[in-house]
Design goal:
- The protein is an alpha/beta fold.
- The protein has two domains: about 190 residues, Aldehyde Oxidoreductase, domain 3 (Alpha-Beta Complex), CATH 3.90.1170; about 240 residues, TIM Barrel, CATH 3.20.20.70.
- The strands form four sheets. It has a six-stranded antiparallel sheet.
- The protein starts with 10 loop residues before the first helix and ends with a strand.
Length: about 450
Amino acid sequence: MSIFDGKRLTNETFKLDIERMRRGWYSDKYFANINAMLNALAAEGYTYQGKYHNLPPHISPEQIAVGNIEVEMQWFTRRIGTTVVVGVDKALAMLRHCTGYFDENGKFVDTSDHLEVWAVHDGTTVTSDGNPLHVQPVLKVRGRYRDFALLETPTLGILTRASRVATNVYETLSAAGGKPVLFFPARFDLHEVQAADGYAYNIAVQRFNQDFAKTLGPFVSTDAQGDWWGGAGGGTVAHAAIASFLGDTAEAMMAFARVLPASIPRIALVDFNNNCVRDSLLVLDAMFARYRELAEAGDQTEAAKYKLYGVRLDTSGTLRDQSVPPLGDPALDLGVTPRLVFNVRQALDSAWERWNLPPRWQKQAQEYCQGVKIVVSGGFAPEKIRKFEKLGVPADIYAVGSYLFNNNGSTVTDFTADVVRVKVHGQWVDMAKVGRKPLDNPNLERVW
């Protein structure tokens, strides 16, 4: 599965569309054209007939069967800085199940065992300064090129996407300084990518924990995001639920608490009416009153259902919450701002003072209020999170969405695969395009 357990996922997890992948359905067409050409040349016994080769002087260009040429190919990312590599196991599954050719009878001949394959584990990190001559390959394959030429596109695809998501998550976790980051980007892409994306997120969390001696758990929003690693989606109340309760956030939360098991954290979404302080307090008042009533009746099991875990602030970037006095600067006034979070925290912490409780309940009520966490969401990315952390904003959890899919500027994580050697007369000969060369990575290990 990763560097964290030393195991690799197999196609039992990925469930590849093997038949169509073998036929090039998912491959850029020029690979299909090259594949068809090499198969035809192999069938007719063609040998190299050109004059302008790049072979060393001591190696003869005679009797080289181009159709059956064996190559060494290396896969690497061009993202500058450190990349958390994910997608290796799925790329290996593609090579394992889709390397080969169709014979004259249309039967697929599996030649994957003829390959030599080296790969890093998911969760490995690589670094790059942007120069392709300095990269660290994450996958290396030697074998007859026409047998796996069609797999360049899909293998690059999974490495690029999964590594981009994982690295974006890792950088977000780093900005948050060890606070939990909820994985909320599912709604911003096709549902078919959720399993791979959730796996990439989980690997990034494990990598962060390893690097910084933390114990953060993964928090995904859909069951599909946990499919490859046994996780499950979590969540509480959506704006639509509050609308169903006529805009009454407190009543929506009371119904949620009564109906759903206590194992689901009670996190109230409090920006529906653009008054986060007011709605946070309304929810808190109602939840604690019921909690106290049940606790005093001795029903601790039912009382636990009314333990308010947190409130989530999700104010639109076009709105100024009613609790935030205007300063005339959109960056300071609109959306989830530091001032809004401070306002909510102060209101939560002191709410128990209004409840006229008997002495025996005062300390417990204070702990109840001060234990309510604040979750912030809406437009959060590392830069904004670092700003919040620098200012000491009392946000406990960051929920991050579309940024985790970002592929622009410093987050571009495109992978490339290059042939860097060919086998001629039994010898491996350097044969990379200008600006490339065979490279190594100490984390590569022989897979088969």
